[in-house]
Design a protein that fits this description.
With 402 residues, the protein is an alpha/beta fold. It is built from twelve helices and 18 strands.
């Protein structure tokens, strides 16, 4: 399910460029894939909203039936504003002030603690009065880029599985009520055996927690960015995970719920970023397409060396030429190197695909550039869900004292 060139061009003409466009029905399609894959298990899916937090996307997720995964107290508040109930929200912060955990407790959400210091502090203050879950680090290297791998030995995330004795002492001394164990190894996991290896570790550790109700396996479901990319085989994964939990139940006599936290998997392919070609610049070695955007709007190629397919949607049948697509920021600002793209003229629209996750969410006003508009395409209708910045937005919250 994909929006056509004509639909994308129509949105760009109506709302201007640069513009982010999200396809609601594609998000629903991705969610249904997961529900189908795990339909034989007791599974909850928490949308990892750090991928895209526009309030309309959160409301759409609520309508579809997802729960919500949050990593900051403000994401929690956005989730509550969007209509999620506190028990539908998982709050997993890291390196925050303890007051954020206290605020999360006041709001009544599920709290996931990722360090020994706060685990002990929370236990001493609240004892068994407020159930929590614990984020563990399994020391499993996964993820498409080191910057998005979160379960390896040098990661700041989670409590090492080698600190189980310390965890057990805290639980014993503070009477802490641990109802869940959490793990997240990173994004873009290609091999489902990594999930299964992590699951083996978690199920082995689960035997040590008498009050355990669920195991949260995070996410990492991969979506294809390049034609040669694979997508996580969620059907096989669903079957294998179900078998593992069924085996655990037979051995231990205890049924555990499975939680997942998909973010990119739900929104990445539903997102399009449309820009306009400002200039075609020929040098001695390269032909540049300079567009009306930059890494201030889509930082992933410069930050992660991420690949995004680029098409000229104004001249899709044009003869292919090799271009390097660059932005208008006063830094090295390259979206795509040496790409085959249909012949591009100044004024043509280019579309970056798979732009729904960590696109607008990581944008900035660097170079005093304005943030783009966001549009939701739903029921064959384009709806503006965020206005394009105007000049006054650059001065918002500044205080002139000179």
């Amino acid at each position: 399910m994909q929006l056509s060139h004509d639909q994308l061009s129509a949105v760009a003409k109506e709302f201007g460029t640069p513009v982010y466009i999200y396809h609601a029905e594609k998000i629903e399609e991705q969610y249904n894939k997961l529900k189908t894959a795990f339909n034989k298990t007791d599974t909850r899916f928490f949308y990892a909203c750090k991928a895209l937090t526009n309030i309309n996307i959160l409301k759409l997720m609520k309508q579809l039936g997802t729960d919500l995964d949050c990593v900051s107290i403000n994401e929690v508040k956005l989730g509550l504003k969007a209509g999620f109930e506190p028990n539908q929200i998982m709050f997993t912060p890291n390196s925050v002030d303890f007051s954020e955990l206290e605020e999360g407790k006041k709001l009544g959400v599920n709290i996931n603690i990722d360090n020994i210091s706060f685990l002990e502090r929370f236990g001493n203050k609240y004892g068994n009065s407020y159930p929590i879950s614990i984020r563990l680090n399994p020391h499993i290297m996964a993820g498409g880029n080191y910057k998005i791998s979160t379960g390896h030995v040098d990661s700041k995330f989670g409590i090492s599985i080698h600190q189980m004795r310390h965890i057990e002492r805290i639980i014993k001394l503070t009477k802490l009520h641990v109802r869940g164990l959490h793990i997240h190894t990173g994004s873009e996991i290609k091999d489902i055996n990594l999930f299964l290896s992590a699951l083996d570790v978690m199920l082995d550790l689960a035997r040590h927690f008498e009050q355990l109700e669920f195991i949260d396996l995070g996410s990492g479901f991969k979506v294809p960015y390049e034609e040669t990319d694979i997508e996580t085989d969620v059907e096989t994964l669903g079957k294998k995970v179900g078998e593992a939990f069924e085996k655990f139940e037979k051995e231990i006599g205890k049924k555990l719920q499975i939680w997942f936290e998909p973010g990119k998997y739900l929104v990445s392919e539903a997102g399009y970023f449309v820009v306009r070609a400002n200039v075609i610049k020929q040098t001695t070695a390269t032909v540049f397409i300079g567009v009306d955007s930059g890494f201030n709007h889509l930082i992933r190629p410069m930050f992660y060396d991420a690949y995004h397919r680029v098409e000229n949607i104004s001249n899709p049948e044009g003869a292919e030429r090799i271009y390097t697509v660059v932005g208008n920021i006063c830094e090295t600002d390259t979206f795509a190197w040496d790409r085959k793209i249909a012949e591009t003229r100044e004024g043509d629209f280019l579309c970056f695909y798979n732009a729904g996750a960590y696109g607008f969410e990581m944008s900035s006003n660097f170079n005093s550039r304005l943030k783009p508009a966001e549009v939701l395409f739903i029921n064959n209708e384009a709806k503006l869900i965020r206005k394009r910045d105007v000049f006054d937005d650059l001065l918002h919250n500044q205080i002139e004292v000179l």
